[in-house]
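User: Could you check the structure of this?
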Amino acid sequence: MRHRKFATLAIILSLVFWMTDSFIHRFVYSEEAFELIPLDFNELWMRALVVALIVSFGLVADDLTTKIDVARRDTHKIFGITVRYAEYELNNLAYLLELAFPESDRTHDLDHECRKNLEQSIKVNKDQIDGLISLTGLIEDSVKPR
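Assistant: Sure, the predicted structure tokens are below.
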């Protein structure tokens, strides 16, 4: 069962409102008796309306909070999947680039400049993987669902 903190707070606030209104009628308006449940139908109706509005607001706030939490968890899952996919693709690219070296050595297809560019591409790719791994920890901590 979910904890409905705003609804609980709204019920407590409604009870405080009801009691305060009863005290105000007794001591400020100098009514003859303290009426927890007022005999005047108009007064009873107005208090009930205010209580219903406060409790409704608490229920709506709880519902919206739950939706925000679900969206936050979904965002965290999507972030994790995206990072894992990017890491997979970068690792796959690094593997393919590294496969090119033995093949180029065997066939002598690459000249010195192409080989240098390939080495640079592998280095950049590894740096991107390292950056992604270090960035993942920082961002996951800030995106973590509560």
